[in-house]
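Changelog entry: the Ribosomal RNA small subunit methyltransferase G record was regenerated in this release. Current contents:
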Amino acid sequence: MNLASRLNDGISALGFAISEQTQTHLLQYLALIQKWNHVHNLTAVREPEAMLARHVLDSLAILPYIAGERIADVGSGAGLPGIPLALARPDCHVALIESNHKKAIFLQQARIELKLKNVEVVAGRVENFSAAEGFDIVVSRAFSDLADFVKLAGHLCKHGDDGGRLAAMKGIYPHEELAQLRAELKPQFIVEKILPIAVPSLEAERHLIMIKRYV
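Regenerated structure tokens:
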């Protein structure tokens, strides 16, 4: 089975639809990672089939839980999950925040080659980044433990009753991180829900930790 068929089957297994054109762009993005990986060491995963499952489908698996029109991807690396989300949700503005210079250069190139008009690349540390408008979702995939994520990126969430959310993508259920987070959590944040995530073709546990900002 070729990559296009694997992608289409994986998206179907996730339970939603993505246009054929967007799927083509997702495959182009995967090819860009492979091309740049030799020099920029974007990911330790080398096989295209493994990249598809562990990176692209893993990123798309959280799509049903992404609400709002402004997304920040903290520690974006190769653009995960930000670029797959930006491709699947062209109505959203997505900020890719990455402090590694080489990876930030790749993100700029991907933005240009994939014609991602809804993507902004922020080359710098998240704690030094401030936006004129807060974000509905601030997501991280492999950035830090939960307590540091809230400490460093919490300021990016929208304030108020309809405040933004931090969405931390984790593997196995993070018991220790959650205990540390709850011990240090500031009053304006609350662990809203912990969602098990099933990723097609991936025999591994995945969880999404949703943390809401109220004030």
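Strands lie at 70-74, 93-98, 119-123, 137-140, 165-170, 189-196, 207-213.
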